Amino acid sequence: MKKRMLMVALSILCALPAFQSAAMAEETNVQPVDELEPARINGPAWPHVAPELRIAAQDDIERLGSTDPGERRAARSDLSGWGKPVIPVLVEGLYAQNPLARTNCATLLGDMSAQNAVKYLIEAFYSAMPDSGQAATYQRTFVRGLKEALEKTTGRAFIRVEARSPIMQEGLQQYIRWYNENFDRLPRQVGEPEIALTDPDYMAKIRILRQLVLQKRGWERPPLSVEHAIGESRTADGAPVKLERPADIDYLHSIPTTPRDGGFFREADRKWAEELLRKGKAQAEKP
Fold first, then answer.
1. How many angstroms separate the Cα of 282 from the Cα of each of 268, 285, 286, 287?
2. Which of 39, 101, 132, 278 could share a disulfide with 64, CB 3.0–4.6 Å?
3. CATH number of the structural domain spanning residue 65
4. How many C-beta neighbours within 10 Å does residue 221 have?
5. Is residue 5 part of a domain?
6. pLDDT in tens, 240-280
7. Which residues contact 202 (CB under 8 A, 6 or more apart)?
8. Is residue 190 domain-shared with residue 97, that is, in the same domain?
9. Bridge partner residues of 234 (DSSP)
10. What does the alpha-carbon distance between residue 70 and residue 64 come to, in Å, rounded to a whole number?
């Protein structure tokens, strides 16, 4: 009898690790290594955000793009008040159409020390930069916000130049190299399923899940003033700096222009201009 009970106990103990592994896999819903893909925004393991939080946060992100500084400050305060649960929505906001909105999302992630968003900050940084040279004028505030957020979340300051400098490209590459060398030291990134440290394939799985998805994207250019379209910088005599990048030149040429003699289209306006010109000539002819 005792021998039979001992055999049953031994069989239970032998089956326990397999049972625990199966239960853990079911609980975390982690696929085998060969079926995993890098974590992505709104991917399979993207955190569920409570509907009331998502609605409020998305409204606040839209307010982050307001031209009213007070409105932007209020939106930042409201988003900060949600704490860590709002981080997934802020990560999504890195790709907001409005440059001010996405810049403020990056700033908030930095202020919250969101180390679980480092992967997405680097991906957004890479996406916002051209293949070479300086960032587009309308992206420079966003790139500056990403740089500052990465300094706060990684503790590394690889960039010590202004956002308009082409050297930003070198700093971006340094962040990419640093991440690839230290991804396993970071906390679980947003959208990454939880993997037990005892999982025999732990390193192989997080190497795949935390792999950077580096892609360039076509950012929609916002409506800008002519001064911004031709560039931020001006020469010492106040003349605009000559455009050199094809993207900036194409954008400048896309701005509608009005011919010098096309300012008056209504007949009443034309007659008024002609009368004004006649009076001016008559006044000039008086002795």
1. 21, 5, 7, 10
2. 101
3. 1.25.10
4. 16
5. no
6. 555 555 666 666 666 666 555 555 556 677 777 788 788 87
7. 195, 196
8. yes
9. 240
10. 10
